Amino acid sequence: MTALDAVSLVVPRSEIHGIVGRSGAGKSTLIRCLTGLEQPTSGQVVVAGEDITTLRGADLRAARRRFGVVYQHANLLDSRTAADNIALPLEIAGWDKAERDARVTELLELVGLTDRAGNHPGQLSGGQQQRVGIARALAARPEILLCDEPTSALDAATTGQILALLKELRDRLGITVVVITHEPSVVREVCDAVTLLGDGAVLEQGRLGEVIADPTTRLHRELIPLVEPAPDGLARLQVALGHPDSPVGSIDGIISLLRHEGIEADVAAATVETVAGRRVGRLLVELADAALVDRARDVLDHARLHPEVAA
């Protein structure tokens, strides 16, 4: 069985790149290949001009230090304080105590936990533990931060805080961030570009603002979910909002367009948000009569709004 098949991925320096896909798509295997924990049967993994698939022993270990990894669960050592957990990779790397202490102090301030330095994991919230995990991943000054489902164990408010921290770290440190996630909201909130994996292959990829605004892409459907209609049998159409090629961009404009064509329509529901500087979303249009569906689809198709019949 092939875990990854002809995957081609380029992540520019200082970009936040999301990798999405369902369970079994190959996301975790890709992370292992990127860090040299898994040796691909063919191809290259080039980091800062160096192909790490050719490295062995001490050279490979040195290359791995370019990466910091943040996991779904922080996996902190209960017997150590927050400060001591952050210091652990520096101890292993042989830093002397004065250097370790200075670096840990710097990192605690960076992740907003200066006052929690002496707390053990059991005394920290889930979000605070994840902040310690991020600080630990940054301890040895990596060039790339790999985040494997970093927020899936957190509530919505804490997720927002962690994503804001990742963005701030990228802006302050210039670090490259790769986020593996199955949560569309994470990609919409923090990523500059996104890749969709499926069955070990790249299905689509591109700049977030471009793929999310184009309803013909699979990524649009992955990242902008359909509006769920009520099961009452009314005639409804799903319409994508924010497509740059459509002359009609607003909800009012779409309804006015249909009514201008003699099709009685109204808004049943809508989801709209700003992603990568674009207003995007989905509109659920309710029609007065099921007999109007085909006509309404023709009108909306002509306006490049890509209507779909809502089940």
TrEMBL record:
In terms of Gene3D superfamilies, this protein maps to:
P-loop containing nucleotide triphosphate hydrolases
Q: Which SMART domains match?
A: AAA (SM00382)
Keyword NADP among UniProt keywords: no
**Which UniProt keyword terms apply here?**
Amino-acid transport, ATP-binding, Cell membrane, Membrane, Nucleotide-binding, Translocase, Transport
The UniProt record lists the ABC transporter domain at 1-224
Query: Matching InterPro entries, A to Z?
Result: AAA+_ATPase, ABC_transporter-like_ATP-bd, ABC_transporter-like_CS, MetN_ABC_transporter-like, P-loop_NTPase
Coiled coil regions in record: none
What would be one Pfam family of this protein? ABC_tran
Residues that span the membrane, as ranges: none
Keyword check for Transport, yes or no.
yes
Q: What is this protein called?
A: Metal ABC transporter ATPase
